[in-house]
Amino acid sequence: MHVVHPPKLSDTAGDDDDDTPELLRTYQTWKGSNIFFLGGRFIFGPDIGSVFLSVCLIVAPVAVFCAFVARKLIDDFAHNLGVLIMAVVIVFTFYVIILLLMTSGRDPGIIPRNAHPPQPETTDQGIEVGPGHTPQLRLPRVKEVIVNGMTVKVKYCDTCMLYRPPRCSHCSICDNCVERFDHHCPWVGQCIGRRNYRFFFMFVSSATLLCVYVFSFCWVYVIRIMHGENTSIWRALIKTPASIVLIIYTFLSVWFVGGLTIFHLYLISTNQTTYENFRYRYDRTENPYNRGIFGNFKEVFWTSIPASKNNFRALVPREPKPPPRVTSGSFVNSNIEKVPSDVETSNMKPVWKNEATARDDSGTVGRRRSSLGRSESWELQSDIASLTGIEYSDRFSRGGSSGSLGVSLGGSVDVPVK
Ligand SMILES: [Zn+2]
Ligand SMILES: [Zn+2]
User: Fold this and answer.
1) Which candidate, 98, 99, 104, places its Cα nearest to that of 43?
2) What is its EC number (predicted)?
3) 185 an active-site residue?
4) What are 157's strand-pairing partners?
5) Ligand 1 centroid from CA 418, angstroms
6) Which end of the chain has fewer beta carbons closer than 10 Å to its terminal beta carbon, N or C?
């Protein structure tokens, strides 16, 4: 039976002589820049302040609407219809706020960092060891995987020490690798990724409807004043300055949230992320993730959201000190192949090419020297295998070969569970 000791709350870090290592919650040792609440039950991005701002930007106009417009309309409609106007806006506002918190307060799909870089096999060929030299093993910085018959490049993340699965990207604000990374939304203060994209879209589209609702009933109120007092629309407007403010506010807001809703409807229908749309421009190339409009909507709205890969409340021993560098026969992180700049920001072109017609024109990848064997692949394979619905096979080229001589492990190999 596994017995866990309660976490010590003392600050005696580095007490190496203690037999029982000090236990902390995972969120207390979290290396990303997230902010946690309620003992790690809720995870936000570092810019959580924007969540409160967004809540205010929603609640404040609704409060003005209730106080100065909906309250007046209660008496104007028979059969409690006026009450319904007030009730609907209040309930709908709660719904929008809950969607906002479900977007920003949960794990967006963070891939846990590796404690150590992937270990290549030391028995592989291609390692030249001179006298007095440590074997230098290198992992390629970029690898190729096959997604639905198309070659997709995946990159190594130095921070998380893993090969990012396809569609994964490292958020520079939260400092995490996030699955199906869409973008980091400053308004919800969180990454938008595989686990919260659905809620993000529902939040944005619902906020659009809320704007339309408030906008419409402000005009209803103005028109009722106009008819009731038999006056012009301008005089009616002057009689309700709150309506003027709300009409302008919701008119401006609906361009933002409504435009965002339409943009994301386009992205969903074509199965793109915001990141991919801005970076890769699938319009000119074939998108390996496209399942057709119906399949794409189904993927976003009617598939189960995968469980978080992180247990932020799990008890873990406090890390004593940075691990010493391995000096003999095994992989050292600095031996990851260096490229002039971070690949994420380099001018690496997306490669969505059909496998049948794939040419080794990438140069940087196809001829990249690799001295690694199967073990190189399992790290990637285990990451990718967790992604459901899309068949991946790993493929990387070997030094000295011409063309993309791939070693395909297929999609159903046994994957070591980390
Ligand atoms: Zn990362
Ligand atoms: Zn982020």
Assistant:
1) 104
2) 2.3.1.225
3) yes
4) 162
5) 17
6) N
